[in-house]
User: What shape does this take?
Amino acid sequence: MGHQDEGKKRKIGIREPSFDKDTQKYLGFYVENLGFTQDWTYLEHDEMIVAHVSRDGFELILNKDMDKAGMGRVFISLYDERVDPLRIEMKENRVVMTSKNWGMAVSEIPNIDRNALFFSPPISEPDENLSLKRPPLQSNIARISGANSIIPMH
Assistant: This one.
């Protein structure tokens, strides 16, 4: 991928975009409710257009785009030891989650414009009407919707 600094290979940075109608509002949701860290923001005429947030090695770009708002989806596979602590944290933060089945049990956390984070194994309380059997966890990676990218989640 081109340039190398003093023999060091550059790593590829993978960041999933999430399009929204109000980046400032989304930034608050991800930081205050979901425990992400604000890394940087971009303003135009005192309006936040782009914000970058991260958590546990996962990076997300929040981008104001009225035409694409609500179309973002990210699928995140968790290491088993992360499931219970994350479930407790989301419950304490009163994060709205729903149980879904995508051929395996997942939890969905939608944001205000219906962009969504999907977690497997599920971090929400199981819905007894849904089959929540999941196949054995073969790899612990986040699969980014819309790209053929993977990110380890610790």
Q: What stands out?
A: Residues 3 and 10 are 8 Å apart (CA to CA). Confidence is low (pLDDT under 50) at residues 1-6, 128-154. The beta strands are 16-20, 37-44, 47-55, 58-64, 73-77, 98-101, 105-110, 116-120, 141-143, 150-152.
